[in-house]
Amino acid sequence: MPRALDAVRRLVRWRFPKLTQISTAELADWLSDPARVPPVLLDVRPPAEYAVSHLARARRVDPGAAAASVLGDLPPDQPIVVYCSAGYRSSILAQRLHAAGRKHVANFDGAIFKWANEGRPLERDGKLTREVHPYSLLIGRLMLLPPPCEGAG
Question: What structural domains and CATH numbers belong to the chain?
Answer without folding.
Answer: 3-140 (3.40.250.10)
